[in-house]
């Protein structure tokens, strides 16, 4: 089975940069995959698309060496299984607040006897290889998101769940849930404390931690704190910012 | 009928910035339309989409005050009519090399007796208003592209064609056709001479000139030379550059 | 944030007419939005489309002043959040039978601390404005459907749930569930009693009531009873009836 | 090969009512096909869709006994061949002004030696039957549109072209081209004269004539003059009118 | 209401062959439906498509006498209702392990008072007829899948659930769950014992049994054991095998 | 720039097997590309899809080492340029009957000064590499189809056109145009003479010849005559035949 380079990099405590696709355009996904990233995450939760577009995007990303990941919409095991069958090499799952939820997520991503994933990896076999069923459980990444106060309270238990390959922090939701101001280019001290606490606990548990950042500079700060899987903003944040910059340059005439 | 703000701005010799959409994602088109541009051009020639996606993009752009333009694929009158029926407020037509071609373009865009456009402006009426048929000929912009040596030779004749509202330069194709090196962030002197010649002739003929640029800075240079309708790069150029910048920032850790 | 005109009209006890789109065609949705309605509801439950088409329809409706609403498919919080992120300004949720279900619906539609909606309103920000996160909870309408005997029994408790902005009756399902004949152009007396009971209780609780009707005349009758948010049939009911009328006129020759 | 019921009806001088689909929604096309019409015409010229949606609509119409027709976008032989391969049982071709153009249209629709249609009727075989190649030329309808003054001048020559199975009048374009006021619910006298002239010449040549009408009543008038293939308005005209009527009924409260 | 020929055949203990569509291409679905099968099953669980493509495929299958079935993705009642509304004449539901789950499945597929399906069979009425609501419960097939050890343990209870019209075995998942080697062209003895046990119990309970097979020959073996609803492989298995055979023939040159 | 393996194989007089995709399903295209073929041809002429699906299929094929080719719909230079921009590595163009048409085809596929292709290879750069503009003319295959008596008469002139990289025979159309019976599994003697004549002339001119065949065995026969680029049937022919075989096996029970 094709190796999961993101898994390998994280195992070596190396940095992983992932693009974050919210358009559902397979061309845009392919462009991002060609831009030097290690992975491309298709965001089915807040992205403006759904499974059919995700499948086309997974194909587009598969034309490159970037690893195709998805942020699924919910804990729904059938949806998660479908995205894995479509060739996703990792599931970033929103709103995992307890170890029970993390265990359910692992079961959704693993074949029996570990889990209850149904066998039928249609595109998975094309992308991963004919021995996909034998090796998928050791290849596909299971990554619960930590994005609530409750999840932080249960963090050690979540990190201890067998099969959790990494955790991924959603600072926007976490900040909001903690009653802090919305995240922006600068991170408030209280949020910074939370984010450093999470990555410290994760590293202590030998579980790699990832995080979404609003800007590349913010992502660099997170990396310095120990985060290893970094999303430096979404495709549409970048497109909007770049277009606004272009307009500003031209308006100066 | 809803006024065409791009037409108004050009009539006042004001600068017009247009986004340039090549993905066909209606969400991306909407994001660009919200980024401070005056217009959004949907590129059906080199963009990775076709008419159905263009229609959705036209709807998306129509949620904003940005003016929806299209760069059509060819001189085909039926395709041009279809895009106008879908609510495009301007046609940027590639490869117009002669005044005969420019006249044919005008005929494709205008109703009888001026032209041969067929009456049935389905979305045009929704976007433009019930009096669309009466005012479309005075509202919709007809913009031939000047992107070959032959077109430059015939420039004065093209500019003199009744109904040509502006011209739009494609420096990449023009440079290539002139046997010059491909355009890049810096414009070679010989190409610069050509580009200044075109805008000078156009201004002399009181026809606004537009141009595609590879970067915002290049676009500003063109604006200083007298170009008024500027595309400061495509959406995917911007996304790729922004992603590459983000990766570079993160790799520095 | 852009105001929700449907919320304003209901607050003033004014009538609201909503189109009801079941095709998933963004052009059809735009046509309906231009037909004098106050809102357009995209029906993801019985409509022949899914989320990707709904997103395009939301864009199409957003070209007009008609308010974009959705009838979601189920109580699934992730689906509801996704539709809100796509710019829906109201959720009409089927089969809400108890106050617990109504509370869960409110939580799905509201940000913390009121609810558990995840922050990431991609198109919501484009449609609503940059301050969407701050005002969404006071803008977006939460509208449980009353369409079972059990829901009627629990009506007062549902109406009392904090965050329920209106209720919406599904007379077809309600009639069927009550063991009454299917609804038709004329409303059976027993059903009429139920429908009048619901609107009376809602008005007593100062909660606006809406209803689906099979014909405009039936809708007018419901309005006279006190319903304020009226869907006068689906797009495809209207298209079929209009085509049948046209055929009948022509067959008379 | 499955018979073409529209051809049979026209051969018997019977009336044929065709729906007119402009949305590209296959569900809407199926609804129209179930509404009592004899045929459904998919309008690729002014409709807000393109070939992929047309193929899905052809499938939807094929679930019924209504005959699937298309109004193609132009005289382009490759496009026409593609639509026929997709199972269209008739081509209504816009803007046929001369007998040469009519001959070219016939060649685009017929196999050698009569024409130059390429053999490969993918869905044609599924819909028509395994003997499609042998009988297609005698089954598929070739219908040039008469919608300009020039076409009227050349009418007899067009009607005399071997292989022209019917003509179809576009009164809107014809009126506009003749310098007459746009068509409306009432037909101006000068336009009426033109329309009666066309149908009279067609009947004299034993070529059935069809026409697009803006309302069913107008269609009935045309039928009384001798037109036999009648489109009583588009789907979206009907949906808009029906929605406006519904709103009017409800506003009366 | 249009009869369900699969139900009739199973009632007579006749064999039913079903195509198994995993592409979501409506043209491929139509081709399969024309290939002599009694039914076409659209696989939304492991197929590389989603509901919008399923709706188009249901339309395509409805052009033929083959019965449209779906394998849904999960037990989700809203999804199942939506697919039924789209005209599916049978639901093959994965992973039904207990009689409680089978009862929930029946409730999702049946109208009140038997179940809780919501009334609004949009395409169901087009395909089934105007009396769809009255007869759907007796027409639409409810078919839980037996594909785990637990399901086999609970088999008699599942078979006894009122409203279960047939069961369908997934030998791949069952084999995997039982700790047996993955299924292949030859069936291991232990799996054979399980499969024969299931069909024997089903026949004893007068409930028809179906099964997925990897090859037609395997399917014939299953038929000899008493299975009556047979899927002889997926569309993409067949396409891949046929292409590989073609390549092998050509490589011999 | 990524090499064109089909070009290399043909230069070495090696056999090339190409899949032939008519569904437009990107998943089916990916499956075919994984089945041992050297190339996958997307058939836009008789396939039931259009450019948007072709782009997704090109992405899917690009996940493998199979070379992506297209059979375009017509000689239209804008369409051809668009497909090349989308990453097609070869154009198989229907109905090239004269050397003038072959020259026009070459011009459509080559950049200035050789041709008039417009510069903007959006996906071409992603698939081919950043130096695509410099090497595309030497990489992309230009392949006119010989499928009429007239083309055979003009064969030597066509073969002599500079830039024609191969010719591809359409035996079905050729047979039909020559007044011979439709092709079937066995090739009639007169057609065989024509087909051998073509390949002999092509080999004499050192131009590789390809051909469409209805079955793998027929393809092998053609290969023995000297054809080197062989399509052994379409995807849907194979799927239909395989399904019919499966049904036959099962019906024997």
Automatic annotation (TrEMBL), chains A, B, C, D, E, F:
Pfam families the record matches: HpcH_HpaI
Alphabetized UniProt keyword annotations: Lyase, Metal-binding
Recorded GO MF terms: aldehyde-lyase activity; metal ion binding
The keyword Ubl conjugation is annotated on this UniProt entry: no
Residues spanning the signal sequence: none
The HpcH/HpaI aldolase/citrate lyase domain, residue ranges: 20-240
Alphabetized InterPro entries for the sequence: Aldolase/citrate-lyase_domain, HpcH-HpaI_aldolase, Pyrv/PenolPyrv_kinase-like_dom, Pyrv_kinase-like_dom_sf
Domain of life: Bacteria
Name under which the protein is recorded: HpcH/HpaI aldolase/citrate lyase domain-containing protein
Listed PANTHER family: 2-KETO-3-DEOXY-L-RHAMNONATE ALDOLASE, PHOSPHOENOLPYRUVATE CARBOXYLASE FAMILY PROTEIN
UniProt similarity note: Belongs to the HpcH/HpaI aldolase family.
GO terms for cellular component: cytoplasm
């Amino acid at each position: 089975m094709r190796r999961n380079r993101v898994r390998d990099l994280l195992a070596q405590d190396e940095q992983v940069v992932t693009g974050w696709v919210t358009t559902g355009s397979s061309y845009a996904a392919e462009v991002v995959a060609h831009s030097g990233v290690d992975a491309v995450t298709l965001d089915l939760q807040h992205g403006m698309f759904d499974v059919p577009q995700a499948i086309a995007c997974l194909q587009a990303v598969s034309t490159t060496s970037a690893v195709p990941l998805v942020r699924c919409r919910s804990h729904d095991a059938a949806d998660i299984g479908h995205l894995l069958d479509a060739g996703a090499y990792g599931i970033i799952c929103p709103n995992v607040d307890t170890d029970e939820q993390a265990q359910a997520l692992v079961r959704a991503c693993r074949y029996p006897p570990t889990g209850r994933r149904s066998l039928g990896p249609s595109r998975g076999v094309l992308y991963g290889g004919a021995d996909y069923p034998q090796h998928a459980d050791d290849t596909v990444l299971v990554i619960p998101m930590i994005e609530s106060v409750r999840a932080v309270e249960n963090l050690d238990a979540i990190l201890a769940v067998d099969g959790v390959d990494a955790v991924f922090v959603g600072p926007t939701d976490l900040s909001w849930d903690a009653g802090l101001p919305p995240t922006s280019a600068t991170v408030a001290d209280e949020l910074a404390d939370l984010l450093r606490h999470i990555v410290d606990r994760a590293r202590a548990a030998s579980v790699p931690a990832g995080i979404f950042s609003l800007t590349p500079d913010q992502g660099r700060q997170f990396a310095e704190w120990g985060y290893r899987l970094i999303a430096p903003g979404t495709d549409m944040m970048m497109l909007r910012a770049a277009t606004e910059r272009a307009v500003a340059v031209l308006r100066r005439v």
